[in-house]
Structure formats: C-alpha cells, structure tokens
Amino acid sequence: MAPSEFWGLTPAEFYWILDAKKPVQMYGRMSEYEVDEIYQDAYGEEAQS
Hints:
It comes from Kaistia defluvii. By secondary structure, the chain is mainly alpha-helical.
C-alpha cells in the first residue's frame, strides 16, 4: 500500500485492515470462529453481550 493510499483511508477502512491482519486467537485446537459458532448454536445470538 502506498503512503498516499494509507493516508486516504477512512477510520473504518483502517480498522478493517487492522482486524484482518490480527492473528486468530486459538482456544485449544479451535479458532475463535469455531468457538463462536458452537456458542451461537448452543445459546443463540441474544446470549452474547
């Protein structure tokens, strides 16, 4: 990414890039995404706050 492109990013775009490059947190052998999927299946969307 060129410096001019970087400085042209909106805060939301910068956060998206930062979030995409962050390493996936692991819980044992499962990724945070797998754990979240199991949690949503067990408790539904409303249980997480």
